[in-house]
Structure formats: structure tokens, C-alpha cells
Amino acid sequence: MAILLDEQSRVVVQGITGSEGSFHTRESVRLGTRVVAGVTPGKGGTALDGIPVYDRVGDAVERQQANVSGIYTPAAFTPDAIFEAIEAGIGLIVCMTEGIPVAEMIRVKQALKGSGARMIGPNCPGITTPGAGKVGFMPNFIHKQGNVGVVSRSGTLTYEMIWQLTGLGIGQSTSVGIGGDPIVGSGFIDIRRRRRS
User: Fold this and answer.
1) Which of 54, 57, 79, 116 to pair with 21, CA 20 to 30 A apart?
2) Residue 155: which H helix or E strand, with range?
3) From CA 14, how far away is CA 16, in angstroms rounded?
4) Residue 197 burial (CB < 10 Å; 0-12/13-18/19+)?
């Protein structure tokens, strides 16, 4: 029983042409994630391994029906990247970037209210649904498909918990690292409320 990220998810990667964005996009694709687009302002019209790159998130939504965003942009540009994803109608925003000032995250939280968007992070390892894909940088090899959900604040402890479950033959439905910053898009209770059949 997956939550938030499933086989219907169509991912756009904001910051796809940077070193972090390109590396983790390739890892996500290897795990089976449907990465349908990337966004890097000024690089629209190019591609990464056949994935079209656009200048704006709105273009990725319009042309590729993207409904999930993974953000790997530098901290200085990340609040604007989040606002752009919200305005484009992205339903799930997963932000791996660390170092976003608290004052900026207060603005982000205000923008999320009533927007219909759910945000994971910032400063998080992302979300993985074995058998459907991942957005973030949890290692591919630690996961096993199953029915145990994992929600954690610490990135490294998230990996350790998943790896120990897998080692015991216990698979995961969805694993979510909510992020370690003082203000995050979704807390433990928020994730628990997103359970669906």
C-alpha cells in the first residue's frame, strides 16, 4: 500500500542539469521512476539521457503531465523553485536541498497552505516506494518491496532502518525521510494522514 509516490507519479526534476540533480535522476530512473522532465532555467530545449529539459515547471506540467517534483537546486534558489512548483500545480514536492534559511521556510509554509501541494523536506533523503520509484537519494539497493511503511527525520537512520528491515526479509511499502530542518513541509502526523489504499 504505497502513499504519495506510486506507479502513476510523473516526476519533474528541478535542477536536473546540476551534478546532484543529474546523478540522482539517473539513480531514480534505474529504480524505475517515471522521470518525465527536468527544469533548469536557460537550458530549455536540451535533454538529459533523453529526458526533456524545460525552462519552467509549468512547461513540464503542461507538456509532460508532471505531478511530482524533486528539487536539487542550490539553497539560494530553492524557495523560488518551491514557489514555482506550487504555482504550476504540482501535487507532491520533494526538496532535498539543505541550508534554506528558516525565514524563507516560513514563507514556503504559508504558500503551501491551501495550495493542494504536499511537500517533503527540505534537507531530506526523499521518498521511495519499492516497485514504483523514488525521488531523492536513498540508496537503491537497500529497499525491498513489502507492506511496512517507514517515516523518519534523520537521513542516515532512515537508510539504516530500511536496510535492517530488508536484511530481515521485511519489505517496505513507502519510505519517507521528512527532513531534519526546524521547519519542514510535512511532519510525522502529516505523512500518517496520507495513508491510502
Assistant:
1) 116
2) helix 155-167
3) 6
4) exposed
Q: Which pLDDT score, from 0 to 100, does residue 192 have?
A: 84
pTM for this predicted structure: 0.96
Q: Which domains can be identified in the chain, with CATH numbers? A: 11-192 (3.40.50.720)
pLDDT of residue 73: 98
CA angle centred on 104, ends 195 and 60, rounded to 5°: 60
Eight-state DSSP code of residue 141: G
Residues of the chain below pLDDT 70: 194-197
* Beta bridge partners of residue 175, listed in sequence order: 128, 150
Question: What are the strands, taking DSSP E only, across the chain?
Answer: 11-14, 35-39, 47-48, 51-54, 68-71, 92-95, 118-120, 126-129, 133-136, 145-152, 172-177
Instruction: Supply the pLDDT for residue 155.
Output: 86
The residues pairing with 69 across neighbouring beta strands, listed in sequence order, are 12, 93
- Sheet (strand 133-136) strand order: 133-136, 126-129, 172-177, 145-152
Amino acid in position 109? K
pLDDT at 132: 97
For 68-105, letters b (16+ CB in 10 Å) and e give bbbbbbeeeebbebbbbbbebebebbbbbbeebeeebb
Query: Quick count: other Cβ atoms within 10 Å of Cβ 167?
Result: 10
